[in-house]
Write a structure and sequence with these properties.
Elements (H helix, E strand, L loop, with lengths): L9 H10 L1 H9 L3 H12 L4 E7 L4 E8 L3 E8 L6 H17 L4 E7 L3 H9 L2 E12 L13 E3 L6 H11 L1 H7 L5 H4 L1 H13 L3 E6 L2 E9 L3 E7 L8 H16 L6 E5 L3 H9 L2 E12 L2
Parallel strand pairs: 3-4, 9-10
Antiparallel strand pairs: 1-2, 2-3, 4-11, 5-10, 5-11, 6-7, 7-8, 8-9
Helix pairs in contact: 2-3
């Protein structure tokens, strides 16, 4: 196909968007499964504007925006960065125009994690990195074995909140340091954290693991199929407890909840966690770099 540059008003290009929607969604899927679903709905609703699209044998890519009364979300995903200079110029100029018109609105820019030049440009324009990492999906055909390690499995009760806060803040401490995040975010937001856990426990989506009345680790499931948190207290790491907890989580989601597409996210810096997930038959399905403007 020829290079297609789209800069028209949405009402003039709806036919082109529909024509290339399958390719567009594949490209957005490289950023995240959630992004693919979200952009797909926006295409159906005619609420997405494709600002640049290229589809050649050498490269495929798309840069688009979803802009409404509450937020402005940009997405950019290119198979490779060869001959990407025209796209960089359009991304720079068009994004600045949107930013200049937006008032009191959340502005986010989601980039395919392998598009290093675009990531650099987005940050030069004043976007702050929220998180870089990978989406992984479980592809194991057989459930992992649960080896006995004397852990007692519980859920969550409000009386456990102090133990949960300590577990999460200590388990994520190094990760927070590596990424410049708040090192005691759960302690600071204890009330909101407790509300969230109380809500998820009613859905059976929180599991905690105890040894002699000490909280060793936990996992939290959100959005039905995402392991949003998988934590093991530092002094219990590298002793087999993490493997047991992950195996329990997979079996719970697959066997008890009949969830097919088990997914999770892991930051680029958390290499050891990514290796553990890969040993348990998780594979990378997307690579992302998320940014928020002017925070």
């Amino acid at each position: 196909m020829k290079i297609i540059l789209i800069t028209f008003e949405l009402k003039l290009m709806e036919g082109l968007v529909k024509m290339y929607s399958e390719e567009i969604l594949k490209l957005i899927g490289n950023i995240s499964p959630h992004g693919r679903d979200y952009v797909g709905k926006a295409i159906e609703d005619n609420s997405v504007e494709i600002l640049y699209i290229v589809n050649t044998e050498q490269n495929k890519g798309v840069y688009l925006v979803i802009n409404n009364d509450k937020f402005c979300y940009f997405y950019a995903s290119f198979i490779n960065e060869s001959n990407i200079k025209p796209a960089l110029e359009i991304i720079k100029n068009t994004t600045k125009k949107y930013i200049s018109k937006v008032n009191s609105k959340e502005i986010c820019f989601n980039v395919y994690g392998k598009n290093i030049e675009i990531v650099s440009l987005v940050r030069e324009m004043g976007f702050i990195s929220d998180m870089e990492g990978y989406h992984l999906q479980y592809i194991g055909e057989e459930l992992p074995e649960l080896k006995n390690c004397n852990l007692v499995v519980k859920g969550f009760e409000s009386s456990m909140i102090k133990e949960f806060v300590d577990l999460f803040d200590t388990s994520y401490y190094q990760l927070n340091i590596d990424n410049g995040w708040n090192i005691n975010g759960y302690a600071v937001n204890e009330e909101g954290f407790q509300r969230k856990l109380n809500y998820l426990k009613e859905l059976g989506q929180v599991a905690s693991f105890w040894l002699n009345d000490e909280l060793v680790g936990a996992y939290v499931i959100e959005q039905n199929n995402y392991i949003s948190d998988f934590v093991v207290k530092p002094r219990f790491q590298n002793k087999g407890y993490g493997s047991y907890i992950l195996a329990h989580c997979i079996r719970n989601m697959r066997e008890d909840k009949a969830i097919e597409n088990l997914r999770l996210r892991v930051t680029k810096s958390n290499i050891s966690a990514k290796r553990l997930y890969e040993r348990y038959n998780f594979i990378v399905v997307a690579c992302f770099a998320e940014h928020t403007y002017g925070v």
